Amino acid sequence: MNRNIKVACFLLAITLFSRHVCAQETFINNVNTAYLDKLIATAKKNYPEVKIRQSQAKAAHINYNATKFAWLDGLSASYIYSPQNLVNQAQPTIFKGYQLAITLNLGQLLKNPSVTNAANETYKIAQYQQAEYMLTLEAQVRKFYYAYLQAMAELRLRSGAVTDAGAAVKQLKYAFQKGETTFQIYNEQLNSYYSQNSFMLQAELATWTAKTNLEELLGIKLEDIK
Fold first, then answer.
1. What is this structure's pTM?
2. Which range marks the domain in which residue 45 is found?
């Protein structure tokens, strides 16, 4: 009975130690704001959707500039040449030589300001959409970065729990072989060890998933960002 009590106290000590480590585990202290700023800048530089928004704004700006001179479309010029020695009895002309004629489409001239204003508003919309997406992308990078840190913290926690459970299994195995504890206690700790390994595998998957999500926005591997 005394030996079982000692074993139980040993297991309780490991449990309390593990809980103490869990209570101390946090990812907040691992947040690196300077590194996060680099991640955001990298995403804004590499992510394809950013380039699409930039091209849309550029195209809208080009169209806006083009409409400023659209009134020239209603302007046409022509010339008439009347030789000096030619006498036209049907349509006599006063001026001889080259004559320039300019025609202005009044409807086109009156229409142009509204077209220009519409193009300007379209350009502004493209700029606003680009700015909005930049904010959205920044928020996504922050979200995935924090998720990645959280996943790594969880992985460290699970890894520590596996180490503790493994140490307890070895101790109980030795105690069981010497007859100092029962098979039930040893088997329960062995099952706990297997469970902790399963949790650690899940934590590893969550870590790699979070890393992949973040790298998708960055366009490069995290290891390439110094």
1. 0.69
2. 2-59+112-224
